[in-house]
Amino acid sequence: MRMKRIYLLWIFCFSICYADSSIYRNADRNQDESPVSKYLLNPIHNVIITQRGSNVTLPCMLRWRPRSYKVKWSKINPVDPLENLIIISNGKQHKNYDKLKGRARLRRSHRLDASLVITNVSLEDEGRYKCELVNGLEDQSLTLSLHLEGVVFPYQSKEGRYHYNYVEARQACEEQDGRMATFSQLYQAWTDGLDWCNAGWTLDGTVHYPVIVPREPCGGNLPPGIRSYGPKDKIKDRFDVFCFTSALKGHVYYIHGPMNYREASESCQAHQALMAKVGHLYAEWRFAGLDQCDGGWLLDGSVRFPITEPRERCGGLPDPGVRSFGFPNPEQKLYGVYCYSLI
Ligand SMILES: *[C@@H]1O[C@H](CO)[C@@H](O)[C@H](O)[C@H]1NC(C)=O
Ligand SMILES: *[C@@H]1O[C@H](CO)[C@@H](O)[C@H](O)[C@H]1NC(C)=O
């Protein structure tokens, strides 16, 4: 009996000590990139993944508390060298700044916890964050990246191909319940299967198009990849755009037609719903697996349908996706409608 207890104790200690030393080893391995911090514990994961609408915690732990110090959280903006302050705390009081106003707080689960909690995560929250310990002598910091799970969709104007300058492109994404995609979101989408033969803006002002199946009109026989035009003039140059959206509050459903655009809009209203935006349809397709082999009107006047299980009679394309009929004449009485409802 006694032996057993000692044995258990030994196992217990071993696992704690082992876990502990592995954290330190991890920290040491990071030494080349960021020096081991005296006061801040290096996180085990530098990338935190969440969805729009969730609450998320960005961990930041003190190893111990200096006698007096402040914790400062900020967001790193690659194109703006100014500091985007989120919160400053001296352990007792704290001050919130504009960024994330009302949605950010320190978690403070215990005396050494300086983690940041962001509630109701929005698309704009994607990016890199810095937790900084300021004690006047040796300021120390660590950075974390917040990634949203989501889906990238190419968007083209009703007026036709290559219509948007950068500013208009940004707005177009927002109007479709999205945000202009970052290059890394576009890259992720390409690995997920996005193939689009028109160049589009991404958030940093560069222009690209993702190709999975090389073909003559899409950059010829170069290997699959993201074809890049590099940075373009944000006012004068015109392209399509890549938008990003994440999980949806509410849901999207289809009502059978045939209806023209006006009837479609009335039909959603009669159900206390709104016509879906393009971002709504993509989010429902990606997160809820909406599969509907019928073209339906969307708010922007386009007609699309979402396919998760490709079949011969539904557009014939081999891969899942949201298919588009473009922007038909609104008088055409041929399609159903996709409605978006919050409940
Ligand atoms: C997020 O936190 C708030 C309170 O801070 C809570 O009311 C809300 O239910 C939480 N949301 C989710 C999705 O957990
Ligand atoms: C969450 O944020 C969205 C805007 O991003 C807003 O419309 C919604 O009302 C917010 N929800 C809560 C519970 O605060």
Automatic annotation (TrEMBL):
SMART domains: IG, IGv, LINK. GO terms for biological process: cell adhesion; central nervous system development; glial cell differentiation; positive regulation of neuroblast proliferation; skeletal system development. Gene3D superfamilies: Immunoglobulins, Mannose-Binding Protein A, subunit A. Residues 35-145 form the Ig-like domain. PROSITE patterns: IG_LIKE, LINK_1, LINK_2. InterPro entries: C-type_lectin-like/link_sf (IPR016186), CTDL_fold (IPR016187), Hyaluronan_bind_Proteoglycan (IPR050691), Ig-like_dom (IPR007110), Ig-like_dom_sf (IPR036179), Ig-like_fold (IPR013783), Ig_sub (IPR003599), Ig_V-set (IPR013106). Transmembrane segments: none annotated. One of its GO terms (cellular component) is synapse. GO terms for molecular function: hyaluronic acid binding. Residues 1-19 form the signal peptide. Keywords: Disulfide bond, Extracellular matrix, Hyaluronic acid, Immunoglobulin domain, Repeat, Secreted, Signal. Residues 151-245, 246-341 form the Link domain. Disulfide bonds join 197-218, 293-314. It is found in: Secreted, Extracellular space, Extracellular matrix. Belongs to the HAPLN family. Mediates a firm binding of versican V2 to hyaluronic acid. May play a pivotal role in the formation of the hyaluronan-associated matrix in the central nervous system (CNS) which facilitates neuronal conduction and general structural stabilization. Binds to hyaluronic acid. This is Hyaluronan and proteoglycan link protein 2. It comes from Pelobates cultripes.
